[in-house]
Amino acid sequence: MATDATRPAPGAGGQFVGLFTPKLVTVLSEGYGLRQLRADALAGLTVAIVALPLSMAIAIASGATPAMGLYTAIIGGFLVSALGGSRYQIGGPAGAFIVLVAATVAREGIDGLILATFMAGIILVAAGFLRIGTYIKFIPYPVTVGFTAGIAAIIFASQISGLLGLTLDGPEPGPLIEKISALWAALPSFNGWSVALAAGTAALILGLRHVNSRLPGMLIAVTAAGVATALFALPVDTIGTRFGGIPSGLPLPALPDLSLAKVEAVLPDAIAFALLGAIESLLSAVVADGMSGRRHRSNCELVAQGAANMGSALFGGFCVTGTIARTATNVRAGAHGPVSGMLHSAFLLAFMLIAAPLAAYIPLAALAAVLAVVSWQMVERHAIGILMRASRGDALVLSVTFLLTVFRDLTEAIVVGFALGSVIFIHRMSGSTVVEAGTPMVPEDRADDSYARHGLPEVPGVVLYKVRGVLFFGAASAIEGVLDRIGSQHKALVLDLSRVPFLDSTGANTIGGLVAKARTRGVRIAISGALDPVRRDLATHGIAAPQVILVPTIPAAIEALEAEGVIAAPAPG
User: Fold this and answer.
1) How distant is the alpha carbon of residue 236 from its chain centre?
2) What is the model's pTM?
3) Quick check: 150 pLDDT over 50?
4) Which residues form the STAS domain (predicted)?
5) Between the N and C ends of the chain, which has fewer C-beta atoms within 10 Å?
């Protein structure tokens, strides 16, 4: 299957251009005609139909206005596709940000949210040009699964009041325990019409998906709920009663408040937005790669995400990121390239210009049902089952990440989950590094050709140890006691590193300490089979001739020891 492997021109400048060339340029340079435009237009329309109710629902759940959700999808989505490093990425507001955005709005207001979004864009652009995107993709799989499941639980919990039509005394708390307590206290305000609309919307979405997955179930269900509310004058909250509807156009661009005090206040939020946005967008790009066989440019994608967040903030929007569900929809709809994402934004703008007055009739219970369905679909139940059975380490990482996401903080969950996963991996890797003692060193006639038969010398006065696996800080202790196991009759140690693909500074320093101790005891050390990268690392730490003998094979080490007179050559047979 075709790939988008970058072939940069020679030199640093050509490599830089190759890494940060938007996929739009790549697609257009391949040749773009009416057939490709038709495919992108159809895919863009399909995604826009999905994104229209979802963008408003996410914005409302985040404490923003539905119009802000549309501004985010239109401006941010256009820039993500036009500048991004993925052919199929669709940008816009994402459910994963609901908790962070809601907390920022509650603490700093809408102007603080817009400023934090703008600053997050700057951070993402810097991260892209510093090529940090190469490393963000290394987050362990159990962390992403646990994090996504935690986000799903939070999203569902945030929609309970909308699903039940509850009226709370004051703002809805963010933390889960306090939220449940407030919802319980508001239970007497239960609205049966809201429950009926929510249940009907969810049932219609799932039913249409079962009948034909290509049907725009969310838009059809939300439209049906709006029609029913308007025709029967149902006593439920709507976009019109809560927000006064949505505007029929984009606002003029304006810079957010850049006062030093405000910047300092929202800096932690901006960092959290940038971190979560980078992870979410690159995960979405990886999903698109797996579905299409293409390959995205991660650092170019981060730069595009940064530009999209700054652009969104200029037009009164909030956090933009790559959205997995809409990106997957784009791929399945037959998109050819980034033009589909750009057209998706254009279609959303057209919808807003034409149908803005009708949006006032959409009931909030229907949008809550949309997010409830989304949260259910976000949980990777199959992956959770596999990881919980795979190993205790994976199960622990998944569980800790999930619990911290739900009960503590999203950024803390990612950091702790990553650290815990790394420690478990280091422990596993350290167990794979083995130091094996060679066969007993007993006199044997050279004519027996024991080198060829065993690959190990059987020479008096010499002890052999073979190291197998990566020699890094987690496993370096495996060779620390080697010298203590050498008897007084031994004059030389052969350390075979032919099966060591890599060692870090700790491993090299441990070997250096072994060499230093051996010299004080009068034991000569020969290192055999070290690969060129390993030799270079050893030399960097001062482990080279004449301190040690460096040879390609074990027999060559024995011959070198004989040539130096460390051990006696066998008498002729």
Assistant:
1) 39
2) 0.73
3) yes
4) 452-561
5) N
Rounded to an integer, what distance in angstroms lies between the CA atom of residue 481 and that of residue 347? 69
- Contacts (Cβ under 8 Å, ≥6 apart) of 281: 80, 89, 91, 301, 302, 305, 321, 322
CA–CA gap between residue 198 and residue 236 (Å, rounded): 11
Which CATH number describes the domain made up of 434-564? Answer: 3.30.750.24
Residues 239, 167: Cα–Cα separation, whole Å: 16
Contact 297, 85 (CB under 8 A): yes
Identity at 486, one-letter amino acid code: I
Phi/psi of residue 516, nearest 5 degrees: -65, -45
Angle between helices 381-390 and 141-158 (to 10 degrees): 130
Most confidently modeled range among 215-219, 358-362, 400-404: 400-404
Per-residue pLDDT at 284: 83
Provide CB contacts within 8 A for 450, sequence distance 6+.
Answer: 444, 456, 457, 458
Between CA 276 and CA 408 the distance in angstroms is 15
Question: Token pair for residue 3?
Answer: 């790939």
For residues 121, 122, 127 and 130, what is the CA-based torsion angle, rounded to 10 degrees? Answer: 150
Q: Which of 22-31, 141-150, 429-438 has the highest mean pLDDT?
A: 22-31
Q: Which amino acid, residue 46? A: T
Dihedrals φ, ψ of 526, to 5°?
-120, 130
| Separation of alpha carbons 13 and 435, rounded Å | 46
**Residue given tokens 């800080």 in the structure block:** 473
Q: Alpha carbon of 275 to those of 280, 379, 436: distances in Å?
A: 9, 21, 44
Cα–Cα distance, 159 to 262 (Å, whole number): 30
CATH 3.30.750.24 domain range(s) in the chain: 434-564
Give the pLDDT band (50/70/90) at residue 445. Answer: very low
Pairing outcome for strands 91-92 and 321-322: antiparallel
The mean pLDDT value of the chain amounts to 85
Residue with tokens 């301190």: 547
Q: What torsion do the CA atoms of 180, 184, 189, 195 make, to the nearest 10 degrees?
A: 60
Terminal-residue alpha carbon distance, the chain: 63
* DSSP string covering 111-155: HHHHHHHHHHHHHHHHHHHTTTHHHHTTS-HHHHHHHHHHHHHHH
Q: How many residues does the chain have?
A: 573
**CA–CA distance, 183 with 187 (Å, rounded to integer):** 6
Q: Is the CB of residue 312 less than 8 Å from the CB of residue 117?
A: yes
